[in-house]
Amino acid sequence: MMPLKVEGLQTFYGKSHILHNVGLTVNEGEIVVLLGRNGAGKTTTLRSIMGLTPPRDGHVKLFGIDATRMSPYQVAGLGVGYVPEGRKIFANLTVEDNLRVPVARPGPWDTKRVFQTFPRLAERRDNRGRQLSGGEQEMLSIARALLLNPKLLLLDEPSQGLAPLIVKEVFQIIQTMRKEGISVLLVEQNVRVSLGIADRAYVLDDGAIIYNGSAAELANDEERVRSMAGASAKEWAIGDHESAMR
Questions:
Q1: How many domains in the chain?
Q2: Which positions fall inside the ABC transporter domain (predicted)?
């Protein structure tokens, strides 16, 4: 059963029309990356899938179930883990207490396994959230989501503000998730690193999908990768035309 199928999402914040007919899929065991400049609608897409900002129109199917109007709690109950931008850990709770917050679902991930996968968290299990580095906070945020034993993991900007070595470590953890059979939808500004681990890529511009295809093919298009931060639908359309002419 396909973990995620999104069709025709139209999402608004008040009167502001943010997502325009957004559609995407995540197959079983895939890492799919959603790219685009700031304000393109990437976080809104994740929030629409999770039921935090319900779409006005369109459909979200999770494991074949229509989840379009479900609450975030119900979406999580289907087996979806969500790691929001900015980590959102509890600053005054210890690492161990942060890990006790989620209501654990049956499955292979428990606190013991989390500490085996994230030895740095095991070393700092008695430290409060505010005492952790940015990378450790990101690891804690991912670890907390894993305790739900998700079949699909949504990650919003996991590399934001992290040093390059820590970014590499976080992305290795994401690759481990795929090996564990967890499908991943990754929103990320670090274009090159994310394309390096993803199977497929989508690019959003002004709330609309302007690219859908192989991550490896996109990674090999130097011009597109360099211009990703400021990509516009017009520029990408010109690029498609030029590619067709070559």
A1: 1
A2: 4-231
Residue 105 is classified by DSSP as: P
Convert the pLDDT of each residue in 83-124 to its tens digit: 998 778 999 999 999 998 877 788 899 999 999 999 999 999
CA distance 211 to 35: 9
* CA–CA dist 174, 36 (Å, integer): 20
Helix axes of 134-146 and 164-179: crossing angle, nearest 10 degrees: 10
What percentage of the chain reaches a pLDDT higher than 70?
Answer: 92
> How far, in Å, are 67, 110, 146, 199 from residue 99 at the CA level?
27, 9, 10, 30
Q: Can you tell me the distance from the alpha carbon of 113 to that of 67, in angstroms, rounded to the nearest whole number?
A: 30
CATH code of the domain in which 191 resides: 3.40.50.300
- Return the pLDDT at 228: 66
The amino acid at residue 76 is A
Paired with 60 in beta bridges are 6
Nearest to 124 by CA among 98, 162, 163: 98
Beta pairing, strands 80-83 & 65-66? unpaired
The residue range of the domain holding 126 is 4-245
> How much is the average pLDDT of 22-37?
96
In which band, very low, low, confident or very high, does the pLDDT at 234 lie, cut at 50, 70 and 90?
Answer: very low
Whether 148 and 76 have beta carbons less than 8 Å apart is answered as yes
Q: How many CA atoms lie within 13 A of 204 on its CB side?
A: 29
- Token couple for 92: 């005054």
Q: How many CA atoms lie within 13 A of 223 on its CB side?
A: 7
